[in-house]
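User: Could you check the structure of this?
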Amino acid sequence: MTQDRAPSREVQKNRIMREEKSGATFALLFGAVLLIVAASCSLRQDKETVAPTGKSASFVANPFCMACHANFEEETLAATHKAAGIGCERCHGESFRHRSDEANVTPPDLMYPKERINPTCMMCHPRQQIPQTASHQPILEVRLSPLETAASDGQTPKYCTDCHGIEHHMKVRTTRWDKCTGKRIQ
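Assistant: Sure, the predicted structure tokens are below.
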């Protein structure tokens, strides 16, 4: 006759470790998939072009975003990308929970602290395709990769959004999040 016993502490500990490993594996795989999706646009051979009519080249889900972020409708960076068929979700993720949160306490899926702006832009706008102009020189000279956090030459860093996207931020915020962690700042 067998007795049903509670699992030993060692068995419980092993089960917890397996669950933690599977959660970490899922997070790692999910992160890798996000990185591949984000990088996929830089692997395209053809350049994204603006439709001649000025209308979107394909469906862009910006109306979901514009419900709250109406100031971006005519903002240059958003309008230029929209005209090329590139929506907010390409850079900020689908952000389903964020856009469904009327209380505005859920951050977007992806936010960008300053040091991640240039590497992120260069995923779709590779260094070799950026025009060699004097205004681009500080960005082109710095060899930032997605893993680097700052310029090593001691110069004041310059970011793509210093010129392209000066207005690409909320003028009035009711909620602030840490752009690295996504945690709400009180």
